[in-house]
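Researcher: Let's try something more involved. This one mixes different molecule types, so please make sure each is placed in the same coordinate frame as the others.
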Amino acid sequence: MCLLTGASGTLGTAFCRRFASAYDIVGVSGRRTPVVPTQGQRIVDPLLPEIDDPSHNGAAIYAVNADLSQPREISRVVELALARFDRIDVLVNAAASSARSPILDGPKFIETLDAALQLNTLAPALLAAQVVESFWRHYPGDNQAFNRNIIHISSTSGVYVHSGDGLAAYSVSKAALDMLACHMAEEYSAIGIRCNAVAPHSFPRAITTDRVLDAIVEVDNGQANGEIVLVEPTPTAGTRSRAPEDFDSGWLEESESSLDGRGSPPSSRSGRAQARQTTRGRSKPKAEQKT
Amino acid sequence: MSGLSMTDLLENRRWWVRTDPFRHVIARSVFKENVYRSLEQEYRETLAANGKTYLDGHDLYGETLTADMTGALSVFLSREWHDLLAGFFDVNANCHVACGLHHHDVGSKDGFPHNDMNPGWFARTPDSVLDGVTLPRPDLVRYTDGRVLKPGVRAEETTRAIAAIFYINNQPWRPGYGGSTGLYRSVKDPSKRPATSVPPINNSLLAFECTPFSFHGFIENNRQPRDSIVMWLHQPKDDVIRRWGEHAIIQYS
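Model: All components are placed in one shared frame. Result:
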């Protein structure tokens, strides 16, 4: 079972579409709902409205709207996830704020920094802490047996300075998230929980969203702990232009676009971790999840 | 469009049925591209040729489609389209349809949350019927209150059952442009704080059953005009009284 934040963003929606049949997913989003079948929305053929086609709606996620800047909402999210599925096997923190502000605009920058730290660093910390408190710390044996883990979706902006983008606040928050991942890895190992960060370059502009998804699944299915997995453009790939379907994550509703990755065109600098070309890992079959 | 079925006309057959804040249907790329272009062209020509009536309460210009409409836009007046919309909702739709072209100039004011549970009056005359669907005769009976405008004409009262908005003839839309249709949990919700909102993207559709809680409204368009085709299916007034009570039917002010 996967508890996923940022479910209505580009990455979150792509994750739900690709993996809803492999994971039981609780998808958390702000005011929007991801454009996938959920308990509150389904796909219907207008010429056959009475038929509920499992090929359309069979892999539905459980959608929860929550303001992750509010601690009470974080408690509610975890409570709902456990009530719905009795377990949480992987926590994917993909919700993020990417507001930009030059540092020279002091007051605005501080505001932007506060918001970025709130959603990009503090919320993942609180959510992980809540899952630990409500569930994981009581079952260390099961945690190891089911390879339970946390995946923070970070960014190469937490490792490099992409100059001129006004992304200082975002960058700081992601750098902090990376360190949080490393410390969580060390301390949560005592209860059998792994923790890593996946730090992609701008997607879908510089790399495909699928590559980011591949990295997430590889981390989930692997044994890595305390790693910052960079997902960067390959040297020959160049910059990919954005396909029309890339904009399709939230067309059903009007609201601010959520994070879909930022960054400069491909760079030759290397990060603190080895950049990986990942392939899709073995999915965790739902049947194996039940004790 | 005559002679063509919905199977021939529809591009996308994956429509979304959603329940929050009340049950509604939304769809994108409803019609095939060539069909949509015909609709859009006729929309423009009709508005340009017939002039528009300003509706002060809603800060919009409107043009009612009647039984003499035989061009591309007649698809919205067809029995097949009526039955397609009715199939999504559990109402006894009685083949009475009111349909109009709506234009909001830039800067049109916010609407107000309302549920569309209003009466709809039609004339009982044979030439009000097109393809088995009864359409308004604004020259004979006033739609809003049933006032008979020509001696000898009998008026028939129904109640709105299903509302649908088809977005057409709009410039490319981006978040922040406004012009969306807000859906609200309560009549008291501020216009700009809907539970959700549906943007005016061309060739997309919003439809819902008119109930005491189907609160919706226009959200101010601050960058470009907003055009749409709005239609209502109707049901017998007695059905509404039995289900919701007569107090639920809201007379036009």
